[in-house]
């Protein structure tokens, strides 16, 4: 499946994202719809995956960052009907190669997507925490 990734969500698409995150996502169910909206509206960047011909939204992720050295990947998901189609990989390829963020130290929490993130150089440091070091990171003393 061919996938296009961009940095925008229409109001209708954001509403669909909020529906998913408040009703179907297993994480952070304590957040209200308004809080999640605020997080998306204030995000450093949003990456939205689309079907190229129709523009249909397939999944999305938001990134919090200092804009210099650190990035936190949050609320990343693919709608269930598009899982297994390479959508998550397409988003990560775009996100990690973004000229504004290619050298970041990346962090995230996930309970179920460790295999996906591991393919992109993320290392698990606990049951849910994963990190991908910056290319500028120093080796850990041994």
What features would you describe in this structure?
- This protein is 27% helix and 27% strand.
- The chain has 4 helices and 7 strands, in the order E-H-H-E-E-E-H-E-H-E-E.
- The protein has a 7-stranded mixed sheet with strand order 1-2-3-4-5-7-6, sandwiched between helices.
- The protein is globular.
- The model has no long low-confidence stretch (mean pLDDT 92).
Features:
alpha+beta, 27% helix, 4 helices, 7 strands, 7-stranded mixed beta sheet, 142 residues, globular
Class by SSE composition:
alpha+beta
Number of strands: 7
**What pattern of helices and strands is seen along the backbone?**
EHHEEEHEHEE
Q: DSSP strand (E) fraction?
A: 25-35%
What does the radius of gyration come to?
15 Å
Low-confidence stretches: none
What sort of overall outline do the alpha carbons produce when their principal axes are compared? globular
Separation of termini? 44 Å
Average residue pLDDT: 92
Helix content: 25-40%
The order of strands across the largest sheet is 1-2-3-4-5-7-6
Sheet bearing the most strands, described? Answer: 7 strands, mixed
Number of helices: 4
List the helices and strands and how they pair.
Layout: E1 4-6, H1 11-23, H2 33-41, E2 45-50, E3 57-65, E4 70-78, H3 87-97, E5 105-109, H4 114-118, E6 123-124, E7 129-132
Parallel strand pairs: 4-5
Antiparallel strand pairs: 1-2, 2-3, 3-4, 5-7, 6-7
Give a brief rundown of this model.
The chain is an alpha+beta fold.
């Amino acid at each position: 499946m061919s996938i296009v990734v961009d940095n925008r969500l229409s109001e209708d698409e954001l509403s669909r994202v909020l529906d998913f995150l408040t009703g179907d996502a297993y994480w952070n169910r304590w957040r209200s719809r308004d809080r999640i909206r605020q997080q998306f509206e204030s995000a450093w960047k949003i990456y939205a995956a689309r079907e190229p011909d129709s523009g249909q939204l397939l999944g999305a992720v938001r990134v919090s960052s200092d804009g210099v050295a650190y990035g936190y990947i949050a609320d990343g998901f693919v709608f269930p009907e598009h899982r297994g189609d390479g959508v998550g990989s397409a988003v990560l390829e775009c996100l990690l190669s973004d000229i504004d963020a290619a050298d970041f130290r990346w962090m995230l929490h996930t309970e179920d997507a460790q295999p996906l993130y591991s393919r992109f150089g993320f290392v698990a440091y606990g049951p849910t925490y994963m990190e991908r070091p910056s290319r500028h990171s120093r080796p850990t003393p041994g």
